[in-house]
C-alpha cells in the first residue's frame, strides 16, 4: 500500500486502498463499502470559515468541533466512479476549502463518499453538496448551505443555522 501523502490534492491515483470493495463475510449489502480512504489536515484558527464544495459527487458530511488549531478531513471514497474523484483541501482567503469533483466524462455516475471533518470549535461552515446527510456537532458559528438530499442533524452548536435539504429530515 502506498503511504499517505501530505499534498492537499488527492487524486484517486494516490488515495489509500482499504479493501477490494467486496463485502465482508456476513456483512449486509446496505452497509457502505469504501474503496479508498485518506486523511488530510491544514492549519486553521477559530473564527475562520470552512467551505465544503461537493457539487458533482456529494457525500455524507460529519463535522465535529475540537480544540486543535487545524482542520482534519478523513475521507472515504466509494461507488462505481470513486476513482474519478479528486479531493482538495486548501487554505483560502479567510479560511479553508474542501472540494470534491468528478474528473470523469459526462454520463451516469455513482458515488458513495463520506467526509469526517474536525474543525476548531469557533468556525463558520458553508456547505454546497449534490446530496448526502449533514451532521454538525459542537461548532460555534454561522452554519449555512444545502444538500441535494439527506438528513440534517445539528447538536450542541451555537450561532446561526440556515441549512436546507432537497429531501430528508
Question: Care to describe what's here?
Answer:
This protein is mainly beta and 169 residues long. It has no helices and 14 strands. It has strands spanning 9-11, 16-17, 36-43, 48-54, 60-66, 70-77, 85-92, 95-102, 114-120, 123-129, 134-137, 140-147, 152-155, 158-165. The strands form two sheets. Strands 1-7-8-4-10-12-14 form a seven-stranded mixed β-sheet, with no helix packed on it. It has a seven-stranded mixed β-sheet with strand order 2-3-6-9-5-11-13, with no helix packed on it. It starts with 8 loop residues before the first strand and ends with a strand.
Descriptive tags:
169 residues; seven-stranded mixed sheet; 0% helix; single chain; 14 strands
The major pleated sheet works out as: 7 strands, mixed
Write down the Rg: 16 Å
Q: Approximately how much helix is present in the residues?
A: under 10%
The percentage of residues in β strands lies in over 45%
Strand order of the largest sheet: 1-7-8-4-10-12-14
Could you name the ranges where pLDDT drops below 50 across 5 or more consecutive residues?
1-32
Shape: globular
List how many beta strands DSSP finds.
14
End-to-end separation in angstroms reads 39 Å
Q: What's the helix count?
A: 0
SSE sequence, one letter per element = EEEEEEEEEEEEEE
- Mean pLDDT across the residues is 82
Q: Structural class given helices, strands, pairing?
A: mainly beta
Amino acid at each position: 500500500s502506498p503511504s499517505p501523502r501530505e499534498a492537499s490534492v488527492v487524486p484517486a491515483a494516490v488515495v489509500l486502498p482499504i479493501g477490494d470493495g467486496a463485502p465482508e463475510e456476513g456483512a449486509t449489502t446496505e452497509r457502505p463499502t469504501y474503496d479508498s480512504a485518506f486523511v488530510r489536515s491544514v492549519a486553521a484558527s477559530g473564527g475562520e470559515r470552512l467551505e465544503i464544495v461537493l457539487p458533482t459527487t456529494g457525500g455524507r458530511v460529519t463535522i465535529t468541533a475540537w480544540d486543535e488549531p487545524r482542520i482534519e478531513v478523513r475521507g472515504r471514497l466509494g461507488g462505481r466512479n470513486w476513482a474519478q474523484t479528486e479531493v482538495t483541501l486548501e487554505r483560502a482567503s479567510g479560511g479553508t476549502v474542501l472540494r470534491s469533483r468528478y474528473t470523469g466524462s459526462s454520463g451516469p455516475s455513482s458515488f458513495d463518499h463520506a467526509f469526517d471533518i474536525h474543525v476548531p470549535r469557533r468556525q463558520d461552515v458553508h456547505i454546497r453538496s449534490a446530496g448526502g446527510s449533514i451532521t454538525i456537532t459542537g461548532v460555534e458559528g454561522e452554519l449555512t448551505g444545502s444538500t441535494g438530499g439527506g438528513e440534517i442533524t445539528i447538536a450542541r452548536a451555537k450561532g446561526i443555522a440556515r441549512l436546507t435539504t432537497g429531501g430528508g429530515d
